[in-house]
């Protein structure tokens, strides 16, 4: 499990944190630069992604949560076809990702002189992509930005999925069972995302995989137009043409991937049984952590109370606390309570009335604000199991002394129970 280290900016060593010898610049973006580096402990090549924390927060403070989510997601994924995160380090001004270095570069640059790959090679890469995507879905992770630019090839010719910056977790699914955030790369987005009525993360990933396969085998995008709205209309109607050199089996397979109806679109379980997909042999990756994440404790959970899975429990460990990466931008705390979620919610509402706080409530989540804006806090309540609930509180603004007085000295004491003596993770 990769570490997270918070260190001083005042380092006299030429090597980054005394561990990594930085090499040439591999790429850069608005908030980050990526360098090739050598791990001085092992001699192995790594990629170091350096984020400018100050610039990121000044431009869009909400991006801090995206960064935390990306780290959280990458920490839980260990698969031969997914770029591995080794460790995360931070100073007051920067965040450093030490990641697996994938020598071969982007799959996007691998197309032949004809602009396309052979059907057999397209199948091989697609098999590896589906292996990684299926692994993510089984662990409640949806990539939402699958495209050739985010697919890398290592020195052995194996595909590696990267860039989980737009990924979603199951805890972002709304009560209607769908995701609602509009994201992705225009030419690769599924039609249901354009409808803005919510979508299934697994199904939109399958659509994007279909576009990727089409690009690999055809050498061009199935949906493309200089006019964005015209392109969206083609996606929404599923209007595309396969080139004449594609086999009938591949055309049929792509039509199932690019089915505009998400209800009838092929699933990952069906993909791995399809005749075109398994041609030439397909061996599923066997991993040590293969567990049935759908298995849970007995008893039904009342509607509206979020239940937590195994990865949520792991993330409660203070060793996995990512908040120090953005120290100073917020304060939060998470703790256990023996009280039921219903009782806790009732106590929060009672307290808000007593203190005359403004309250916005959604399910078991609360946004509370003082009458003059001197106190702003977000509280979320989740069911851990039949005996315990988790309370998460985050200061969103206002005076720090007022927060201490109202939260630490009053509301927290009201919500805690005998089992709660120490917070699970304090930010």
Structure characterization notes:
The chain is α+β, with helices and mostly antiparallel strands and 427 residues long. It has three domains: 4-100, Phosphorylase Kinase, domain 1; 107-278, Transferase(Phosphotransferase) domain 1 (Transferase(Phosphotransferase), domain 1, Orthogonal Bundle), CATH 1.10.510; 310-426, Kinase associated domain 1, KA1 (TATA-Binding Protein, 2-Layer Sandwich), CATH 3.30.310. Helix content is 30%, strand content 21%. It contains twelve helices and 16 strands. The protein has helices spanning 53-59, 63-76, 119-138, 191-194, 201-218, 228-237, 248-257, 268-271, 275-278, 310-315, 341-354, 400-415, and strands spanning 4-6, 20-28, 32-39, 45-52, 85-90, 94-100, 141-142, 151-153, 159-161, 168-169, 331-337, 358-362, 365-369, 375-383, 389-398, 425-426. The strands form four sheets. Strands 1-5-6-4-3-2 form a six-stranded mixed β-sheet. A six-stranded antiparallel β-sheet has the order 12-13-14-15-11-16. A two-stranded antiparallel ribbon has the order 7-10. A hairpin with a 3-residue loop joins strand 2 and strand 3. Helix 3 runs antiparallel to helix 5 (201-218). The longest helix has 20 residues, at 119-138. It is globular. The model is unreliable at 3-13, 166-173, 290-330 and 418-427 (pLDDT under 50).
């Amino acid at each position: 499990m990769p570490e997270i280290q918070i260190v001083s900016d005042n380092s006299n060593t030429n090597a980054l944190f005394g561990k990594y010898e930085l090499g040439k610049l591999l790429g850069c973006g608005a908030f980050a630069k990526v360098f090739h580096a050598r791990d001085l402990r092992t001699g192995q090549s790594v990629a170091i992604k350096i984020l400018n924390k100050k610039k990121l927060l000044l431009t869009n403070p909400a991006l801090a949560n995206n960064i935390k989510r990306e780290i959280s997601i990458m920490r839980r994924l260990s698969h031969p076809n997914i770029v591995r995160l080794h460790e995360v380090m931070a100073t007051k001004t920067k965040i450093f990702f030490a990641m697996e270095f994938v020598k071969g570069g982007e799959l996007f640059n691998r197309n032949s002189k004809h602009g396309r790959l052979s059907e057999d090679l397209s199948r091989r890469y697609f098999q590896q992509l589906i292996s990684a995507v299926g692994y993510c879905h089984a662990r409640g992770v949806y990539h939402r930005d699958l495209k050739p630019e985010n697919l890398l090839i290592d020195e052995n010719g194996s595909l590696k999925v990267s860039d989980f910056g737009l990924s979603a977790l199951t805890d972002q699914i709304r009560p209607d069972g769908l995701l609602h955030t509009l994201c992705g790369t225009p030419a690769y987005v599924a039609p249901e995302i354009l409808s803005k009525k919510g979508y299934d993360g697994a199904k939109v990933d399958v659509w994007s995989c279909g576009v990727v396969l089409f690009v690999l085998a055809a050498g061009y995008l199935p949906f493309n137009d200089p006019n964005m709205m015209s392109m969206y209309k083609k996606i929404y109607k599923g209007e595309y043409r396969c080139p004449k050199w594609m086999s009938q089996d591949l055309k049929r397979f792509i039509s199932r991937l690019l089915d505009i109806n998400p209800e009838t679109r092929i699933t990952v379980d069906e993909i791995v049984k399809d005749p075109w997909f398994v041609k030439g042999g397909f061996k599923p990756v066997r991993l040590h952590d293969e567990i049935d994440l759908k298995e849970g404790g007995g008893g039904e959970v009342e509607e509206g109370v979020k239940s937590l899975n195994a990865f949520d429990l792991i993330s409660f460990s203070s060793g996995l606390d990512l908040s120090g990466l953005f120290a100073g931008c917020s304060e939060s705390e998470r703790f256990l309570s023996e009280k039921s979620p219903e009782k806790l919610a009732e106590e929060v509402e009672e307290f808000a009335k007593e203190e005359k706080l403004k309250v916005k409530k959604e399910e078991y989540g609360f946004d509370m604000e003082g009458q003059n804006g001197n106190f702003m806090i977000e509280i979320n309540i989740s069911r851990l199991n039949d005996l315990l609930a988790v309370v998460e509180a985050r200061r969103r603004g206002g005076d720090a002394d007022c927060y201490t007085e109202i939260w630490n000295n009053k509301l927290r004491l009201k919500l805690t129970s005998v089992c709660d003596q120490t917070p699970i993770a304090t930010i």
